[in-house]
């Protein structure tokens, strides 16, 4: 049984939940009474081992990647889609490198907000979770998300792991019981400092009145791990990325860590606390364990050690910056307490902006991914958000800009280059490659240019600089357009046998560059890349078997036959006339007023 303790907030103890960006480190209105303040606090260094106490060495070819487990109080929005698109691009790139990738995503399905949402919709919490979780899976399919494991926190396997983990932390002396009272925001699922509230005790994030609540809960001794976390962050500069996020986390830790609540007595929709069935485990002490329980999806033995042995630690937690504290402060401390290894890296990306207001499911003002997919398709959506948003920073969406970017980059620079080159090959060479690409490039500098850009793209991918990776690959397309315009093969074909041979080689050089583009861009636009490969005369199976080594120059061989030219990416046209029906690939212009809102990730 966890010990029960008493003291006041003035004595230096404060509960806080950090889900809100802009949280201020100020005194809280919580009044916490601590009874029998008693828990063991041994000093120990950072632990990088499995629950067995033995170091486990995983092969360098293993790469475990996670998105957040998305909260199912409402359907998915563009913020969650953005995180998952980025994660998918990273997973696909790692697979191209030959890594054994485990890409984990899923849904967080417990808590008061979910119970309330279900009641509002006239359904049970279980029915509500089923519906929204299925909506996430359906959206991931539409976006071509290649996840390996989808974990739901209502899964009995997950509950088993959460309870075992809780018991290990309890045995470490890091869980105790306390009473507290304060103003509680149901939407944030956290207590608020009265100083940060608006009129009538309204939450500044959700603009809803907070309610006064008093509860008797269990707490995790986060403050006990202050020094260890400081050392970890100081000694491992790659643990939190980008670097400015690391600075934020170090600032939070140095300002002083305070213990936090890990249970709720007033919430029935959750996993019961093992040593007190009258309480349920609070969302984060539940949901974060999904990254580990997901590894048990195909295992017969269901326990924490088996899950850890299945591949933990994670190579990368990919999250929105609003939940950075949970993943970079709470989660490492919880793992240290249980003797489980820490993830290798936590990357906090920025928000998407549209209309100047923070957007999220709770506010009901999100950018709907399903609408974007219906208008533009997955390749355009994936490309725009990964190319135009510097990964890690905030980024803006506007429909005009979206259309202009995908038209210029995908339809023109890449698509049109492929189409016109294949048309020339069909007209003059019967769609047949006349010479090996390696031979065709002899005596030119173009091959070297492409190789340098491919190397840059790989380096950017490895650093999670997705926008820069796209830019480097696009430069190959621009170089290809410049090359074919300068060489003018359409004219050379009319200049006798020598001109014909030269023109034929030029077409092979350009098509080889486009083949390399297809491979290098496939983490971002998998469907478009496959269509390009099909146009180049390769089968779907051949495309699916490519690796990053296929970005080397020399893939096209003499005698290879390409397909009949057809567009791989059609332009989207802005349609201005009011009342006209927009035909396929035409989008009605919505007006010139610019809006900026922030999408919660």
Keywords:
six-stranded parallel sheet; disordered C terminus; disordered N terminus; 15% strand; elongated; 601 residues; alpha/beta; 20 strands; five-stranded mixed sheet
Describe the structure.
With 601 residues, the protein is of the alpha/beta class. Helix content is 42%, strand content 15%. The protein has 20 helices and 20 strands. Strands 4-3-2-13-14-8 form a 6-stranded parallel β-sheet, sandwiched between helices. A hairpin with a 2-residue loop joins strand 11 (272-273) and strand 12. Helix 13 crosses helix 16 and helix 18 runs antiparallel to helix 19. The protein is elongated and about 90 Å long.
């Amino acid at each position: 049984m966890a010990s029960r303790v008493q003291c006041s907030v003035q004595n230096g103890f404060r509960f806080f939940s950090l889900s809100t960006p802009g949280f201020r480190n100020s005194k809280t209105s919580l009044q916490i009474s601590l009874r029998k303040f008693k828990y063991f606090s041994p000093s120990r260094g950072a632990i990088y081992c499995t629950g067995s106490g033995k170091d486990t060495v995983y092969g360098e070819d293993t790469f475990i990647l996670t998105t957040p487990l998305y909260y199912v109080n409402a359907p998915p929005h563009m913020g969650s889609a953005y995180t998952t698109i980025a994660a998918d691009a990273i997973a696909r790139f790692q697979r191209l490198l030959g890594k054994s990738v485990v890409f984990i995503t899923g849904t967080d399905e417990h808590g008061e907000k979910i119970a309330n949402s279900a009641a509002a919709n006239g359904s049970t919490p279980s029915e509500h979770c089923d519906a929204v979780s299925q909506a996430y899976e359906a959206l991931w399919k539409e976006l071509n998300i290649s996840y390996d494991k989808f974990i739901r926190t209502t899964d009995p396997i997950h509950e088993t792991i959460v309870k075992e983990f809780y018991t290990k932390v309890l045995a470490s002396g890091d869980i105790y019981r306390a009473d507290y009272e304060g103003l509680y925001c149901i939407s944030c699922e956290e207590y608020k400092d009265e100083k940060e509230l608006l009129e009538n005790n309204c939450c500044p994030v959700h603009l809803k009145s907070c309610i006064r609540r008093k509860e008797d809960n269990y707490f995790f001794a986060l403050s006990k791990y202050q020094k260890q976390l400081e050392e970890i962050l100081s000694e491992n500069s790659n643990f939190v990325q980008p670097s400015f996020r690391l600075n934020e986390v170090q600032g939070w830790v140095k300002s002083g860590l305070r213990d936090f609540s890990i249970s709720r007595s007033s919430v029935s929709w959750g996993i019961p606390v093992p040593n007190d069935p009258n309480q349920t485990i609070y969302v984060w002490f539940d949901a974060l364990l999904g990254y580990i329980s997901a590894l048990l999806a195909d295992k017969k033995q269901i326990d924490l050690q088996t899950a850890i042995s299945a591949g933990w630690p994670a190579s990368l937690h990919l999250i929105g910056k609003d939940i950075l504290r949970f993943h970079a402060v709470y989660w490492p401390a919880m793992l240290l307490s249980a003797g489980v290894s820490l993830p290798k890296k936590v990357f906090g990306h920025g928000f998407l902006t549209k209309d100047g207001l923070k957007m999220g499911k709770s506010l009901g003002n999100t950018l709907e991914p399903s609408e974007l997919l219906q208008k533009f398709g997955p390749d355009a959506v994936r490309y725009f958000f990964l190319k135009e948003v510097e990964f890690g920073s905030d980024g803006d969406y506007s429909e005009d800009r979206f259309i202009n970017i995908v038209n210029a980059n995908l339809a023109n620079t890449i698509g049109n280059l492929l189409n016109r080159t294949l048309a020339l090959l069909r007209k003059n060479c019967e769609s047949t490659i006349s010479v090996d690409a390696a031979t065709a490039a002899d005596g030119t500098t173009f091959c070297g240019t492409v190789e340098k850009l491919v190397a840059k793209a790989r380096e950017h991918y490895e650093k999670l600089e997705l926008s820069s990776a796209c830019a480097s690959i696009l430069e190959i397309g621009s170089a290809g357009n410049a090359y074919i315009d300068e060489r003018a093969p359409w004219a050379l074909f009319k200049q006798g046998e020598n001109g014909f041979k030269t023109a034929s080689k030029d077409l092979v050089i350009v098509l080889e560059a486009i083949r390399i583009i297809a491979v290098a861009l496939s983490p971002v636009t998998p469907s478009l890349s496959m269509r390009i490969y099909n146009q180049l005369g390769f089968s779907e199976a051949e495309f699916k078997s490519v690796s990053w080594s296929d970005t080397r120059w020399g893939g096209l061989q003499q005698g290879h036959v390409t397909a009949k030219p057809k567009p791989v990416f059609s332009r989207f046209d802005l349609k201005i006339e009011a009342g006209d029906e927009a035909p396929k690939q035409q989008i009605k212009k919505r007006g010139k007023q610019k809006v900026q809102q922030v999408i919660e990730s």
